[in-house]
Target: N-acyl-L-amino acid amidohydrolase
Amino acid sequence: MSHQATLDDLVSLRRDLHRHPEPAWREFYTTARIVDELETRELDALYVGPEILDADERMAVPDDDELDEWFEKARAAGAREDILERLAGGFTGAVAVLERGEGPTIGLRVDIDALPITESEDEDHLPAAEGFRSENEGFMHACGHDAHATIGLGILDAVAASDFQGTFKVFFQPSEERVAGGKAVAEGGHLDDVDYLLALHVGLDHPTGEVVCGVDGFLAVSHFRADFTGAPAHAGAKPEEGNNANLAAAAAIQNLYGISRHSDGATRVNVGLMGGGTATNIVAEESYIEGEVRGATTELMEYMEGRAHTIIESAATMHDCDVEISVEGKAPSARSDDALRALVGDVSESVEGVDSILDSDELGGSEDATYLMQYVQDRGGLAAYVGVGTDHPGGHHTRTFDVDEATIRIAIDVLSGSIDRIAAEQP
Amino acid sequence: MSHQATLDDLVSLRRDLHRHPEPAWREFYTTARIVDELETRELDALYVGPEILDADERMAVPDDDELDEWFEKARAAGAREDILERLAGGFTGAVAVLERGEGPTIGLRVDIDALPITESEDEDHLPAAEGFRSENEGFMHACGHDAHATIGLGILDAVAASDFQGTFKVFFQPSEERVAGGKAVAEGGHLDDVDYLLALHVGLDHPTGEVVCGVDGFLAVSHFRADFTGAPAHAGAKPEEGNNANLAAAAAIQNLYGISRHSDGATRVNVGLMGGGTATNIVAEESYIEGEVRGATTELMEYMEGRAHTIIESAATMHDCDVEISVEGKAPSARSDDALRALVGDVSESVEGVDSILDSDELGGSEDATYLMQYVQDRGGLAAYVGVGTDHPGGHHTRTFDVDEATIRIAIDVLSGSIDRIAAEQP
Amino acid sequence: MSHQATLDDLVSLRRDLHRHPEPAWREFYTTARIVDELETRELDALYVGPEILDADERMAVPDDDELDEWFEKARAAGAREDILERLAGGFTGAVAVLERGEGPTIGLRVDIDALPITESEDEDHLPAAEGFRSENEGFMHACGHDAHATIGLGILDAVAASDFQGTFKVFFQPSEERVAGGKAVAEGGHLDDVDYLLALHVGLDHPTGEVVCGVDGFLAVSHFRADFTGAPAHAGAKPEEGNNANLAAAAAIQNLYGISRHSDGATRVNVGLMGGGTATNIVAEESYIEGEVRGATTELMEYMEGRAHTIIESAATMHDCDVEISVEGKAPSARSDDALRALVGDVSESVEGVDSILDSDELGGSEDATYLMQYVQDRGGLAAYVGVGTDHPGGHHTRTFDVDEATIRIAIDVLSGSIDRIAAEQP
Amino acid sequence: MSHQATLDDLVSLRRDLHRHPEPAWREFYTTARIVDELETRELDALYVGPEILDADERMAVPDDDELDEWFEKARAAGAREDILERLAGGFTGAVAVLERGEGPTIGLRVDIDALPITESEDEDHLPAAEGFRSENEGFMHACGHDAHATIGLGILDAVAASDFQGTFKVFFQPSEERVAGGKAVAEGGHLDDVDYLLALHVGLDHPTGEVVCGVDGFLAVSHFRADFTGAPAHAGAKPEEGNNANLAAAAAIQNLYGISRHSDGATRVNVGLMGGGTATNIVAEESYIEGEVRGATTELMEYMEGRAHTIIESAATMHDCDVEISVEGKAPSARSDDALRALVGDVSESVEGVDSILDSDELGGSEDATYLMQYVQDRGGLAAYVGVGTDHPGGHHTRTFDVDEATIRIAIDVLSGSIDRIAAEQP
Model:
């Protein structure tokens, strides 16, 4: 019989992952650790790295130097060499498959990447106090993906130990924080036969004991980067010979914020990052902006994206510059299906420790689980994004974020119970 | 009798300085090397570091970490420890004084700093071919200040060996490239009794053998840096809570370029550098711009500076941000006096190797020797900025710039001859 | 007994008003015609012009020349001289009061002004075909306020003829199209004792026979005008002496559209009008912009308004200009009360010609009836804004808009029935 | 023998022209009056209206309604019907030719149009006091072209009465104030054989008795108008359907002022006029800007013009608008030839009333006499622009401008003397 993790094992695993936070496409240690665990189970299939996704659809992949640096870091931290080799080139993530006879195919998606945030060293911060603070300085699991990966494994064990009938796949997806991995995984082939998909997130400002059966209100998002190239010139001697990349970027920024509001619903635009130039007395040859547009629906996001690209290109033309625009991340909107929402609520009723059940809540942000949800829904399947509350001292994406580990067991029970019930009822 | 450098000595010194290029306020090795030389001469006074300038008027002084790094680099390169100690805190530069009886006080100003440019490794580039390429990678004497310092020492020796009557002071001024040192040295006290001031520059697109008796057309300049501070916010969830520092900077850039032309003469404006923000999905809390304004006269520069500050402050207010503006460098305009121009021309006639003498030429750029010139002129003295041609393969401020070392002797003869003549004729 | 208009009378009245469309604060003929009608009824009170509003709260009042011109036009069209005299200074509108014993005080608000639109001359356009096209060229009842005033009179007659017990007030409000009259009327004193308020609008893209019991989704709005004053200068000879009012306006426009979206709901911004300058070769001394901000709630509108004023003032400061900002119109958001909504629906069930009843619909625009609704609601009363469908060939605010006159009778029945029922049930 | 005007006649003529100021291409009365005078002389040729210019090169021609209005005004003022007919369509201006045997062909250019300025009614303003104030309210000879036309006639008479040998042509050029007529006249054929060209201007801040032998410093200029067309939309209900013409214009304005300064010399840019939109709540469908660019040389003006057009087109594209750009006026730079300058100075020495002779002065503005000067110079001829001082109480282009009529005689003597001398000496 397959290995079965105890709760203590799972807490240890979560803390180990927490000590080794890795950002998008650099989850080498994380993937190796997960695969190492998975190999101790009796699985019907296990796909790793390039086997789980459509390589052409990966977004925001770092350059080789950057990938090498994190690869070496993972090796130094003790990641298994034979697994690491399968991840070369930033092909992180894994898909584990259980086949248990006749029945529907059910998918579970968990994400595994971390954030470029420096973790608190404060005594009140549990990971600091108990010795599992980030060892990759400047990076941190500040959104609970360490818990997500751990819960994913726990659910796999629970489903394996149940009388589940059907096929169960767990997707350990890389690169969610930049919404850069969801599309590649959605189009990687392993979702094609999935009838039901669940995704989960801990926290989201809900306390331990609260369950949100189906989260909605995902803002569709598109991240862009625009690199402007002009011509340098000495600003005192020959200013007219410059094609001013800083001025082109400034014109773009001013006008991007001026994209018209839309009567169909909420939209957003932000130029979060900008930079350019080399010296005060040189007309800037190069500049860049990085930003994002969002919409309450995919159509609204696409309206914003279309206008944004027109504006950026015109700003370049206006100042005799060239520009290259790249999409660095993207996610559609999506909705949780009511049938699954009801089922999850019903299951949650009898889970120990659950004391509040919300039918739905608005995310108000973006997530690329929506690519997977939409992929399944477009083929006639059902999907839901389940929120499992956790007491988190600091907010998401802050340096004092932490997960109440009691959540791990509750999440496993809610989700594995739901998966068993879906297989049984096929709603 | 005082030590007297041979031409070979001077070429060696220039090449040693060329190997150790140091940027503004970090000329530790350079100053130590010059002072070491000066101490072998019979001087009447030698002022070093804080003794030569008004500390309050230094602009663009780097932070302590940066200063320490270069201090250690100078120590490692063999700079004399006892001199280095006198330069702590970025107090570089020196003033050497000869007193030779009754007569006028004459000053000579040379600058000693280098540029943040990576020197060519090409075989055709003499310093690379002959082994005196920059050892401070990323920095380079690309404007001939290594030659200026060397020539300053040579002139001191020549005047000392002549029948000069009066007082002669050589100002080895730090931090010209950022026009950040001239004002502090001008107001350091040592110019108060100077009756005549000469400054010199090699090259300026004039070949070896050509002398420009008095350069004019200095654009007055002011370098500014503006740091915008707003409030961060999640661009998807709470965009209205952000005070957008990137947008404030963009509004400033757009409007700075729109400052009205002036009917009194040429003006310039450039935002050479910009940056801001932390992530695509965060409204930027901080941003900055660095730039410069210039004018054909000091008044025109001040018109531009006044308008620029108003625009920057309004752009901040407009987007509910704060802004701090700092002046990072500044230089007035100035004119060479005709009496000195004529005298230099006359002396040059009989200098061997001089085959072309121009009365004047336009610099078309900025220089903070103008602070020293103006200081002397405002007190009734005369000043001239002398150009000594040199064949330079690459342009000024390019990675293949180099000085024809034959210029060293010519410059010493032209300037020391002029100084002797000034003392004799007191024009 | 009081005069009672027949349906034919009402159609004639509507067509007469349609022939004399008058814009905000210039409804001289319209008011005189209404008052003339009212004086034939047995009213308990009739307030005219300055008696109905708080004069300090009028917005966007035209200058005297403009008022005089329309005053004369009304006189020439045959308006009663004695009534006209009471309207001098642009004090248009009236309030009619019926007192019928014990019972609640119920108000009905109708608006009476027209739009600056040139009416179609097309044969297919009924007013053109049947000879009641606008006689004030360039102005038109393109939003049905001619019908509103007529319906108001019809309801007054119907209530007077019923067994209504209580007090009934009809507010013939001027200057709705510019949202410039609602506030003044709301604060005019006559609402202080009103327990229930109904307002009505025909059309709104609903066909004849459809009733919307309580319209919601009023965008709060604020109209602004900003007048920039700089200094003129010859653009060739002395450009630097100009303080450029056109440039200030352009900076304001660019940045107004960039006000951040708000996570609490929909916002809007528009600079609909701009103008400035006198000649190509003169730096513009004067310029102006006129625009509006809106919000799904009053708070959101105020957020937009606050940001807009900061931006406009900073744009002026930025370019050394002065600016005067005036609020030219304003309306809060509001909601129809559910109790009235239900009652209106119930009454409509038995009105002949009503074949579709909608509980609510979104206006998606702005209306200053909201001032009156809010005034009543703030004092514990109830209010509803009732939509009465009408087949209108062209859209609202287009030159082919027209009202299906069958609507007049339906509207009178729905509203007078509701008023009787409110008095009886006091919900 | 030809009629010869006395000084009294000339003063009368000037005052008559002053009473009938007419703007560009509408100089119907003015041309008719001049032609009427010319027909009393013995001329060898007289060209009127379409015969003097290249019709395709006329700029800024008003529309037919506007032309008709002024045509009727001229008729009403008593202009000769037979001459008026030759001017139909805005073909104003005339060329008079004297042939006096062998000798060079010499041209004289005077301009005849007025400005859209309301003339002062002040008692101190001589034309008001003496009854020859403008009868075309809102228009005024505020730049002395009434005197120019008069002086042109006086010079013709003087040359005719002298022993001049050669051919002499006087160009009465329309539409200088908008720099819209010079090009058409330059290319009209009558300059092809001109060897020497003189142009003249009174005043220019020089007092009566001062002559400027050759004015220089003409800024080349190009006037543009850009009409933006977007799509209208209701700003509250459907803002996203608008293509915002006001926003496009604002983006254009902001960026036009940001065109880089040029190291070759002075440039200018101004958007003097702007307008757009129909209502605060409508996204503007149409807007326009009118402005100008200038340069110290024709090349600099063309640099500005090229950049301006790119910016305007990009601003339109940026906001999904179309734009049409038209050139409404244009003039190159030019220089007065030194040989003529010297000759005029020499002649002026002996002219009674001349007490100050300046070799040259800078205009600092624009003039389309430069088209004619350049046309002659390009074909090997010489040209000079002569300034004849006049005491003018108010500045040029102000409502109190007036000409000291003593200047008329001085100008005739200086110019006719110069023409005789040119013919004699052929410098």
